[in-house]
């Protein structure tokens, strides 16, 4: 497996529009290389009989029941609005 080079880090930093110092580039190259080595180690595992999961703990619908309940009064809702008119949020026009 190829190692992460300073040029790789500089390329990723440029794409992310980040300015890195030389010591940061070396540090990130080492860290990214360690991550990729760990992933390579994980690829050695046999996962043929492992079913895909989205959670490691079996979960059953943990959402609350969707029941109607009173909402905030309009005057309280509009308290933090920068601008409002006739009970509505007023925003700048986006279309001509």
Describe this entry's structure for a reader.
The protein has 96 residues and is mainly alpha-helical. The chain has a domain at 6-42: Histone, subunit A, CATH 1.10.20.60. Helix content is 36%, strand content 4%. It has 3 helices and 2 strands. A two-stranded antiparallel ribbon has the order 1-2. A hairpin with a 2-residue loop joins strand 1 and strand 2. The protein is flat, with a radius of gyration of 26 Å. It starts with 5 loop residues before the first helix and ends in a 7-residue tail after the last strand. The mean pLDDT is 90.
Gap between N and C termini: 55 Å
Full CATH superfamily name of the domain at 6-42: Glu-tRNAGln amidotransferase C subunit, N-terminal domain
The amount of helix comes to: 25-40%
Order of helix and strand elements from N to C terminus: HHHEE
Shape: flat
Ranges with pLDDT <50 over ≥5 residues? none
Annotated CATH topology of the domain at 6-42: Histone, subunit A
| Sheet with the most strands: spatial strand order | 1-2
Number of helices: 3
Name of the CATH architecture of the domain at 6-42: Orthogonal Bundle
Mean pLDDT: 90
Biggest sheet features: 2 strands, antiparallel
| Whole-angstrom Rg | 26 Å
Proportion of beta-strand residues: under 5%
The CATH class of the domain at 6-42, by name, is Mainly Alpha
What is the structural class? Answer: mainly alpha
Question: How many β-strand runs?
Answer: 2
Catalytic activity: L-glutamyl-tRNA(Gln) + L-glutamine + ATP + H2O = L-glutaminyl-tRNA(Gln) + L-glutamate + ADP + phosphate + H(+); L-aspartyl-tRNA(Asn) + L-glutamine + ATP + H2O = L-asparaginyl-tRNA(Asn) + L-glutamate + ADP + phosphate + 2 H(+)
Keywords: ATP-binding, Coiled coil, Ligase, Nucleotide-binding, Protein biosynthesis
Protein name: Aspartyl/glutamyl-tRNA(Asn/Gln) amidotransferase subunit C
Subunit structure: Heterotrimer of A, B and C subunits.
């Amino acid at each position: 497996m190829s190692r992460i080079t300073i040029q790789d880090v500089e390329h990723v930093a440029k794409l992310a529009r980040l300015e890195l110092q030389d010591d940061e580039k070396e540090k990130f190259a080492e860290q990214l290389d360690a991550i990729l080595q760990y992933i390579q180690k994980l690829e050695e595992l046999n996962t043929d009989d492992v079913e895909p999961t989205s959670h490691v703990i079996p979960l059953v619908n943990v959402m609350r029941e969707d029941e109607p309940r009173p909402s905030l009064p309009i005057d309280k809702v509009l308290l933090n609005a920068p601008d409002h008119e006739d009970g509505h949020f007023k925003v700048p026009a986006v279309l001509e």
